Amino acid sequence: MTDRPVLVPPAGVRGENLQVCYDAALHNLLDVNTIPDGGTAYLRAGGGYSDPWTRDAAINAWHAASLLTPEVAKHTLLKVCAGGLIAQDNQWWDQIIWVIGARQQWLVTGDAAFGAEAFRIGAASFEILRREHFDASTGLYRGPSLMQDGIAGFPEPPYQPGNPSSFVLDHPGAADLRCLSTNAVYAGALGALEQLAAVAGADPAPYAAQRAELVAAVNEQLWSGDTYGYFLGPEGLDPHQETAGLALAVEFGIAGPERAARVVAGIHHEPYGVVNVWPHFPRFDAEHPGRHNAICWPMVMGLWGYAAAKVGEADEFGRTVDDLVRLFRSSGDELFELYNATTGAVDGGWQVGRQWESLPDQAWSATALLRLVHEGLFGLEFTADGITFHPTVPTTYAGEWSLRSLRYRAATLDITLHGDGTEVRSVQLDGKDVTHVPATLTGHHHVVVS
């Protein structure tokens, strides 16, 4: 039996290219970025980043690691905690994303002891963040946006010309922004705390209520009439498109069906895919793209592709998969940190007057693609009771797909997917119609989704 799943595509160049990239992503995650650590192992963020940190540990667990390497994912999540709290460092604004990764770890593994511990850590950390960073006047949380720790991800202001620091908080006013992605992360984390509270025997109601209030505030404060703005600042609502924020607003149900459809329809594409923030800020351009501005980060592209699948936009989902495959194949099946959106070249972008390096072997580039295969194409949705299936198969990917030797809890699954589109006619487990694959399953089984 193989130690990792095997993707078998239908005949054709498109499927074969996705298979090559899938295998490269598995190698990146399970071989290159799995680091021995005193009898166990952890996931590093990637080449150039020897240690995990909160955001990357959470995203990698959430997107694929908890499924593919659960013990390593668990150790990595706990490695970025100390003293019963999520690591208290200077990147506090997206710290609560840890809870989303921890919830996925519990859902995939069924580890109730970890789920209860995750609730205690998450709830204690959330209490500090709410006390220190919640803005009662708008109902939103303050801080820069998800993964935008570099000032290249923001216009002027808060960017301060002449300030040599690349770190976003070194620019006046950045800490007081109320950003779409950050508030979407808080909404997702509150939903996760609600679920984990039940595991820990705590009251989930306060988290459900706060989530509902935050969703209402995002829709009131950050909706522009056509889509969501990037952030609320001293000059009002910034109109730039922030792809991660838009994706998470869709995924976490902040955007209702009508708004979600408008968000997906209105997203901007550059020749090689969706970008972090569109359009270019005045200090950047296509020849000198900002490191966190109009440039392709595969992790963000993965968030967008999953959001498209979540609302049944098969063509948009397929377009994002195609864009990621083109980028990875063009860089020799190496999974880099970021790419030029106009040329597709490996490009670290510009920030504070210089061009930066795009580092190789990035784990969250790998987990972005892996999630699009597992949870997008095959439509795996993990619940406390097992796996349900909501596949998204673009017409360009139609045919028979197989995902073999996928380990799930105490079972190993061979999954076959037929057809195209988003409608599921039947799910069969070992030849019998079922509504889901139960979490209690053991041994080797065959699942057919049609």
Number of strands: 22
Q: Share of helix among residues?
A: 40-55%
Mean pLDDT: 97
Q: Please mark out the parts with pLDDT under 50 across 5 or more consecutive residues, or reply none.
A: none
Major sheet = 6 strands, mixed
Going across the biggest sheet, name each strand in turn: 1-17-18-22-19-20
Determine the structural class based on helices, strands and strand pairing.
Answer: alpha+beta
The rounded Rg comes to 21 Å
Query: How large a portion of the residues is in β-strands, by DSSP E?
Result: 15-25%
What is the CA–CA distance across the termini?
Answer: 26 Å
Anisotropy-based shape: globular
Helical segment count: 12
Q: Could you walk me through the main structural features you see in this protein, from its secondary elements to its overall organization?
A:
The protein is an alpha+beta fold. It has helices spanning 13-32, 54-68, 70-79, 97-109, 112-133, 180-200, 205-221, 243-251, 257-266, 298-310, 314-330, 363-377, and strands at residues 6-8, 34-37, 40-43, 81-82, 85-86, 134-135, 140-141, 178-179, 231-233, 236-237, 241-242, 277-278, 350-351, 354-355, 380-383, 386-389, 401-408, 411-417, 427-429, 432-433, 437-438, 443-449. The protein has twelve helices and 22 strands. A hairpin with a 2-residue loop joins β2 and β3 (40-43). The protein is globular and about 65 Å long. It starts with 5 loop residues before the first strand and ends with a strand.
